[in-house]
Amino acid sequence: MQKIYFDYASTTPIDNRVVKAMMPYFSENFGNTMSLHTFGQEAKFVLDQSRQTLADLINSEPNEIIFTGSATESNNLALKGISFANKSRGNHIIISSIEHPCIIESAKWLESQGFEVTKLPVDKYGFVNPEDVKNAITDKTILVSVMHASNEIGTIEPIAEIGKICHEKGVYFHTDASQSLGKIPVDVEKMNVDLLTASSHKMYGPKGVALLYVRNGVKINPILHGGGQENGMRSSTVNVPAIVGFAKAAEICSVEMKKEGARLTKLRDRLIKGILKIKGSRLNGSPKTRLPNNINVSFPRIEGESLIIRLDMEGIACSTGSACSSIKLEPSYVLLALGLKPEEAHGSLRISLGRYTKEKEIDYFLKVLPKIVTKLEEMSPFK
Distance between CA atoms of 380 and 344, rounded to whole angstroms? Predict the structure, then answer.
């Protein structure tokens, strides 16, 4: 049986070119970047090179890149680091209602520490209204965090407009670009962001490494204390092989992104057109302003978990939502925020395409899916 991977939003396979770039830094050039001898300085040199590569991709200065262990860590550092460093200015932060769980949970924890959190609503396509941001900002607001593109529904937010409002109000602005970096252009200057999160394993690099861009002059506290690595912002022995892999993945994406984006958009639109021929199906998220590889659909009267299992039996790997919350047997809070009823949100399917997706896989999926949906509707407890 063929195996088809349609869950690239969850994680991507490491590109072979990335693996090749990483290999020497496991056993040959293995030094600690904090060591003064040759081994350490060779590691420090490649670390600086990698920092420059990623800075070039997002149009930042290299010293504004902090390497972390995951996007979750970067988002925690952004929210907690800004909140505690600026609590003399205020105690209010603003997030959207469809943020990744690590933003939602960080904000919830900050509430337990005396901070106030405002969750902004989204419209039926998942867009945050910049006017809502403007109206929610008070003289106590210190940070706004709105994701660049949704990991679940693929909607791309009006980040530049929101960032402009934040800067006019003197409020720091953070965006989680984990799903967008490498797929669509990311420019911290054009986007008006002060902090930005990105992750290696979403763009064909290794797991266990990510970054947080922090604009020079932004007041932020570290959440890990120790040897003072990453300009004192993230103490821990630096994971050189993973960072080299992250940089190589970024280099590849910068060259191939435009062509690959056009290819994936074509496959995405063909898939959406085919799926929407199924009676009762609906597309979630923006029909046009969405990531080139993301499709999120829902079917009334069937359960997403059953759909995933049936597809897996046919050799197709998809998701019911974000991978971090897919084990929870409850409707997606993202889809509920769009206005879907719980039974509609339960029947959701996220299909995310990638570098190794082939047209024949789309053909096979569109052949298999209608039969599965029909079968599950016949068995449905929601009739």
Answer: 13
| Active site (annotated) includes residue 324 | yes
Low-confidence ranges of the chain (pLDDT < 70): 321-329, 380-383
pLDDT at position 215: 98
Find all residues with CB under 8 Å of 172, minimum gap 6, and list them: 82, 86, 142, 143, 144, 166, 194, 195, 218
The pLDDT of residue 343 is 80
Cβ density class 18-46: b for 16+ within 10 Å, e for less: beebbeebeeebebebeeeeeeeebbbeb
Largest CA distance in the chain: 71
Predicted local confidence at residue 325, as pLDDT: 47
- Domains in the chain (CATH in brackets) are 4-12+256-379 (3.90.1150.10), 16-251 (3.40.640.10)
The H-assigned helical ranges of the chain are 16-22, 24-27, 38-58, 71-85, 101-112, 130-136, 159-168, 240-275, 304-313, 333-337, 342-346, 359-379
